[in-house]
């Protein structure tokens, strides 16, 4: 079942720092008129902590990285070893009005089909595997994806605002090859919608710089 009537795909051509990657997602939510699937890479060694996460616990769990706090919830993620994507859903779209667990499940069902098409076994967790660990991939919660070996394959954080829904997701099965990176994006977008168009965004430097500055501030990163 398709999640969106129409979906735009943006394979971000720029490899971005942690603060810039987060700022772009927030800005997308402000300006998007249709749902957007954005797939992107990180410039440098970055990890992210969820909006409600404790930075001290995050730093104790991963060494050798720079930190950025996400606007969404969820656990601590090492982005040196993942495949990262975001789904931006403007207000008025049916998915934006669903409960968090329902929108999470809908996107992860499409992602499970995507990984299965690659030959990676994946099924949705019912929450029984939850551990409470700070590290995202050591704490499968309800509707996360679990691999055939019982380990967590994919998780996400969400944020709702008057503008809509932002879903920031991470897949532990990273794609290093450019072809595989793009192929996964194309498969996922096809699972989410039958009608897809390529999206190209010309970022306003001033607006983006203001948002980047907030994510760069130590007060934001260390707020908890």
3D structure, described in words:
It is globular, with a radius of gyration of 16 Å. Helices cover 31% and strands 25% of the residues. Helix 1 crosses helix 5 and helix 3 (100-117) packs across helix 4. It has a single domain (7-219), classed as BirA Bifunctional Protein, domain 2 (2-Layer Sandwich), CATH 3.30.930.10. It is an alpha/beta fold. The mean pLDDT is 90.
Taken from the alpha-carbon principal axes, the silhouette is: globular
Helix and strand sequence = EHEEHEEEHEEEEHEHH
End-to-end Cα distance = 39 Å
Could you please say which CATH topology applies here?
BirA Bifunctional Protein, domain 2
User: Roughly how many Å is the radius of gyration?
Assistant: 16 Å
- Share in β-strands: 15-25%
- What is the CATH superfamily? Bira Bifunctional Protein, Domain 2
Assembly state: single chain
Which regions have little confidence, pLDDT < 50, spanning 5+ residues? none
Helix-strand blueprint:
Layout: E1 7-11, H1 18-31, E2 36-40, E3 46-49, H2 55-61, E4 66-69, E5 77-78, E6 83-90, H3 100-117, E7 122-124, E8 145-147, E9 152-161, E10 164-171, H4 178-192, E11 196-198, H5 205-216, H6 218-221
Parallel strand pairs: 1-2, 1-11, 3-4
Antiparallel strand pairs: 2-6, 3-5, 6-10, 7-8, 8-9, 9-10
Helix pairs in contact: 1-5, 3-4
Q: Which structural traits does this protein have?
A:
eight-stranded mixed β-sheet, alpha/beta, 224 residues, BirA Bifunctional Protein, domain 2, three-stranded mixed β-sheet
Give a quick rundown of the structure.
The chain has 224 residues and is of the alpha/beta class. It has a single domain, classed as Bira Bifunctional Protein, Domain 2 (BirA Bifunctional Protein, domain 2, 2-Layer Sandwich).
């Amino acid at each position: 079942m398709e999640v969106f009537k129409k979906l735009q795909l943006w394979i971000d051509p720029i490899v971005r720092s942690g603060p810039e990657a987060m700022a772009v997602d927030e800005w997308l939510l402000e300006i998007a008129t249709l749902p957007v699937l954005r797939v992107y890479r990180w410039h440098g060694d970055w990890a992210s902590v969820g909006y409600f996460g404790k930075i001290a616990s995050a730093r104790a769990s991963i060494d050798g990285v720079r930190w950025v706090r996400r606007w969404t919830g969820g656990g601590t993620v090492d982005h040196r070893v993942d495949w990262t994507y975001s789904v931006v859903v403007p207000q008025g779209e049916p998915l934006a009005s669903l409960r968090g667990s329902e929108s999470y499940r809908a996107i992860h069902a499409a992602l499970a089909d995507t990984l299965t098409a690659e030959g990676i076994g994946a099924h949705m967790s019912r929450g029984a595997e939850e551990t409470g660990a700070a590290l995202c991939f050591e704490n499968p919660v309800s509707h996360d994806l679990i691999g055939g070996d019982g380990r967590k394959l994919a998780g996400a954080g969400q944020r709702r605002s008057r503008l809509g829904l932002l879903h920031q997701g991470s897949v532990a099965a990273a794609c290093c090859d450019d072809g595989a990176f793009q192929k996964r994006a194309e498969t996922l977008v096809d699972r989410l919608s039958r009608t897809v168009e390529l999206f190209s965004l010309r970022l306003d430097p001033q607006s983006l710089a203001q948002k980047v500055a907030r994510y760069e501030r130590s007060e934001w990163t260390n707020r908890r």
